Amino acid sequence: MHVPDGFLDAPTSIATAAAAATAIGLALRGARRELDERVAPLAGLVATFVFATQMINFPVAGGTSGHLMGGALAAVLVGPYTGILCLTVVLGVQAMLFADGGITALGTNVVLMGVVTVVVGYAVARAVQLVLPRRLPMVAVAAALGAIASVLASAAVFVGLYSAGGAVPIPLDTLLTAMLGVHTLIGVGEAVITFLVVASIVSVRPDLVHLARPVLVTRELETRLVAA
Predict the structure, then answer these.
(1) pTM of the prediction?
(2) Which residue spans adopt a coiled-coil conformation according to this UniProt entry (predicted)?
């Protein structure tokens, strides 16, 4: 999903850079409510894990490959605002030091993988969590469904950006079919990884998982009512 330099025209790249800067500014303010002595170290670990796993590609179909985007995973573990900051750091280091995604396309990549995946992944996970039973094992299930949705949303937004300012001659219908088809499979891989990671942490330290906090609060209230 890393967009290279020159794939989108200058006006589109400038617009996505402005959108990314706005999102980062909002995330910096919102992260103050999420970060504490437990979350701050975990945020560093999440950024490191996403960075490492994004460097590992898995085969998809037709000679293509995919990698973890990590937006939904970061949001579920440390919260959406802190998740945006984690992904922004990862994408910035990748672009500056490893030429993974273009410098002029950094704003585009932050929007696609650092904002859309986080926001959509967390929103879907929370929505699913409201429907599923309030049980800790369901946290990983909600996270996995959010991960699939986040990948497909990112691919769809990319196609929208290309339709507005694509600088490479690719038929739009061909691009849409290819992006959504391949990223459906990538989304499945993302869901599996997200489920395994979240389930592992929830099983030993659910208090460290941001999405598990509503469940823990519900359990505490139920315990108090039974004790009373």
Answers:
(1) 0.90
(2) none
Angle between helices 172-204 and 137-165 in degrees, nearest 10: 160
Residues 94, 110 contacting (CB under 8 angstroms):
no
| Calpha distance 182→180 (Å, rounded) | 6
* Domain 10-227 bears CATH identifier 1.10.1760.20: yes
Read off the pLDDT band of 175 (50, 70, 90).
confident
**180 neighbors 152 (Cβ within 8 angstroms):** yes
Chain-wide mean pLDDT for the chain? Answer: 88
The residues, any chain, with a CB within 8 Å of residue 25's CB and separated by 6 or more, are none
β-sheet bridge partners, residue 166: 8
pLDDT digits (tens, 9 = 90+) for 26-73: 999 999 999 888 888 899 999 999 998 887 766 655 445 567 899 999
Strand, helix or coil for residue 35: coil
